[in-house]
Amino acid sequence: MEKIVALCKRRGFIFQSSEIYGGLASTYDYGHYGVLLKSNVKGEWWRAVVQERDDMVALDAAILMHPRTWEASGHVQSFTDPLVQCMGECKKRWRADHISTEGGYARCPECGGGLSEAREFNLMFETFMGPVREDAARIFLRPETAQGIFVNFKNVLQFARRKPPFGIAQVGKAFRNEITPGNFIFRTREFEQMEIEFFVPPADAPEWHQRWMDDRMRWYTDLGIRPDHLQLRAHGEDELSHYSAGTSDIEYLYPIGWSELEGIANRGTFDLSAHTDASGTRLEWVDGGSGERYIPAVVEPAAGVNRSMLAFLCDAYHEEVVAERERTVLRLHPQIAPVKVAVLPLIPRDSGMAERARALHAELRRVMVAEHDDGGQIGRRYRRQDEIGTPWALTVDEQTLEDDTVTIRDRDSLAQERIPISGAREHLLDRLGAPWSPPARDA
Ligand code: GAP
């Protein structure tokens, strides 16, 4: 994990938040390449779950919601983790369910001291709306995007003209006052989710649950994650959330071990029933023809943007020795790579080459993220692009001036070929649209 963190900092993907003040623990800012990568991950998700389907619509609900939402959803009562405190020297607080009880009793992982009794700690961040800090003004930062979807169920039914099975998809920030955040962007207190609430006739929920597990596993492998780094794990009875009739996690083999990347839950009719009861608004499906009415069940594939990004980075990170020189390369799927192509004039001072390179860059950047780099040795420039995962580099050299061709270098195979400069744009668009899988490698 240290290598990923170092590369993210070195290349401007991710920084510690408020670094000049010593940093805010487990909080991160995303720099240029981080923003592009994150945006591509979200873009691919939107493409797969909305653009390429007929049964899904998009939503962007507010982060701040009526506080009664969180009473009805069960979060005020049940969105808690068991908290223990070290009674020894360090006084640190821990999640009781993350403490090993090897040897029969639990000890503080930091100083070995004894631990207090566990008490339930609510993970929601509270704030106050308006100028007066009183109970009536107390609201929460949403701990999941899901509830914004449930409370809009009726609006969407009315305006999107859908009937079950159909889904509502949303991407947005969520906040949890995690007791033990950590492992870089894996567990933070502010993060982004990509959530789908898929509404189905209750009898069909198990079948849709399975379909979504298959679909979501395929999404990760289609984007280049190695299948042997992914697994589905069904929750045991004791792990299930208060709303769940069955949840399976897609787990990724992070450097910290197998850990949750996405949860796919069969939430039954819990949510729409709870909001119907609490609000008095009937959140149900009524068939205009037959008059049949029912509360749909919900299947929920809930993914983390930051955790997905971390999985893509971990899977893509590769070190190798080429021609006796070490190189670090991010073998990201071209669709999610922050930059698609770099244009590198070989001798920048030569005005002819510089001009051609600038013109090519201007043409390419209209259709994809392209970088122009004329600074320093060509080998150094290639290595920089390898480290940010740019799949292709175009070199403009003396031959370009003679025959209007450029060299295209492939990040993964390092193969180089000459292509006409006039066809470079189409060539790259073709390669961007072509299926891609990670090159074979050792472990
Ligand atoms: N609406 C259901 C829900 O929120 P969840 O399993 O608690 O389910 C869904 O969260 C996903 O959100 C997780 O699989 C994970 O990818 C991401 N996530 C949850 N807590 C997170 C945290 N503290 N930091 C980063 N990502 C988190």
Oligomer status:
single chain
Count of alpha and pi helical runs: 13
Mean residue pLDDT: 94
Structural class designation: alpha+beta
Based on CA atoms alone, the radius of gyration comes out at: 25 Å
Share of β-strand residues: 25-35%
Shape: globular
Distance between the termini: 16 Å
Distinct ligands, ions and cofactors found in the model = glycyl-adenosine-5'-phosphate
Characterize the largest beta sheet: strand count, sense, and whether it forms a barrel: 7 strands, mixed
Describe the model.
By secondary structure, the protein is α+β, with helices and mostly antiparallel strands. Helix content is 30%, strand content 28%. It is built from 13 helices and 23 strands. The strands form 7 sheets. The protein has a 7-stranded mixed β-sheet with strand order 3-9-10-16-13-12-11. Bound molecules: glycyl-adenosine-5'-phosphate. Glycyl-adenosine-5'-phosphate binds at residues 144, 146, 176, 178, 187-188, 191, 193, 195, 260-263, 300, 302-304, 306-307.
What's a concise summary of this model?
It is built from 13 helices and 23 strands.
Keywords:
443 residues; alpha+beta; binds glycyl-adenosine-5'-phosphate; seven-stranded mixed sheet
Question: How would the blueprint of this fold be written?
Answer:
Layout: H1 2-10, E1 14-16, E2 28-30, H2 32-51, E3 56-59, H3 68-72, H4 75-78, E4 80-85, E5 93-95, E6 119-122, E7 126-128, E8 138-140, H5 146-150, H6 153-160, E9 166-175, E10 190-200, H7 205-222, E11 230-234, E12 247-254, E13 257-268, H8 270-279, E14 285-286, E15 293-294, E16 297-304, H9 305-316, E17 317-322, E18 325-330, E19 341-345, H10 351-364, E20 370-372, H11 378-388, E21 392-396, H12 398-403, E22 405-410, E23 416-420, H13 424-433
Parallel strand pairs: 3-9, 19-20, 19-21
Antiparallel strand pairs: 1-2, 4-5, 4-6, 7-8, 9-10, 10-16, 11-12, 12-13, 13-16, 14-15, 17-18, 21-22, 22-23
Helix pairs in contact: 2-9
The structure holds glycyl-adenosine-5'-phosphate.
